[in-house]
Amino acid sequence: MIEVKNLVKKYGDKVVVNNVSLDIEKGKITSLIGPNGAGKSTVLSMISRIMRSDSGEIKIDGKTLEQWDTKELSKKIAILKQTNNINVRLTIKEIVSFGRYPHCDGKLKEEDIKYVNEAIEYMKLKDIEDRYLDEISGGQRQRAYIAMVIAQNTEYILLDEPLNNLDMKHSVEMMRVLRNLVDELGKTVVIVMHDINFASVYSDKIVILKNGEVLHNDCTEKIIDKKILEDIYEIKFDIKEIGGNKICIYF
């Protein structure tokens, strides 16, 4: 479990994360949603130790972040940020292989190659694995980065807007892959996303942040509620049940 207690982050006098507390349960998909500037990505960055908090505590499987060795933490948690600036010309297979670095220090062994190939297959990139990142579409690059995270084979997978640059078909495929990673492989996935319907259909739990604070944190069924969503987003919602899932129509 990931335990977040009283987390605070400031930039000068501006508080961007204000006393955030939440528990992320193992073996589930937890989605962080909310308006722009709610602090979602900042919380994710602090959990992964990319960014330091100003106060508060984060525990992963009972150990505080400070107690984790960097290499061991990168075997426990993988994170994919919104922006991935890579200046070296690399193929899809090479970028996916980076996911194995915490395990092999760049010297791929047979087990590492197995995880790389499985991740490429999982993301349906096998037919273009030797193409360079600058030769493929933004959606294909995003799938390659996700494959890199999958190849890392961590227990916790943290994703910041993973559906960026993906069309509807590949967004659905992406969410199905993440759902399968949880249901079939026992992974724990935390996603920052804006699409409420993808959060509704694929998440076990939803955390809503606004103005740096957690306003709601519950199972998906309870969060996808007309009044809750209208209060958060300040627009009109209608909610329909289709195929056992709640679908939001906003206008």
- Average predicted local confidence, pLDDT: 91
Strand order of the largest sheet: 6-7-8-3-9-10
Q: Report the strand count.
A: 12
Shape: globular
Listing every helix as H and every strand as E from the N terminus to the C terminus, the arrangement reads EEEHEEHEHHHHEHEHEEHHEE
Oligomer: single chain
In short:
A hairpin with a 2-residue loop joins strand 11 (237-242) and strand 12.
Care to describe what's here?
By secondary structure, the protein is α/β, with parallel strands linked by helices. 36% of the residues lie in helices and 29% in strands. It has helices spanning 40-47, 70-76, 92-97, 101-104, 110-122, 138-152, 168-185, 196-202, 220-223, 226-233, and strands at 2-11, 14-24, 29-33, 55-60, 63-64, 77-80, 156-160, 188-192, 205-210, 213-219, 237-242, 245-250. It has a six-stranded mixed beta sheet with strand order 6-7-8-3-9-10, with helices on both faces. A hairpin with a 2-residue loop joins strand 1 and strand 2 (14-24). Helix 5 (110-122) crosses helix 6. The radius of gyration is 18 Å and the shape is globular.
Write the layout of secondary structure elements.
Layout (H helix, E strand, L loop, with lengths): L1 E10 L2 E11 L4 E5 L6 H8 L7 E6 L2 E2 L5 H7 E4 L11 H6 L3 H4 L5 H13 L15 H15 L3 E5 L7 H18 L2 E5 L3 H7 L2 E6 L2 E7 H4 L2 H8 L3 E6 L2 E6 L1
Parallel strand pairs: 3-8, 3-9, 6-7, 7-8
Antiparallel strand pairs: 1-2, 1-4, 4-5, 9-10, 11-12
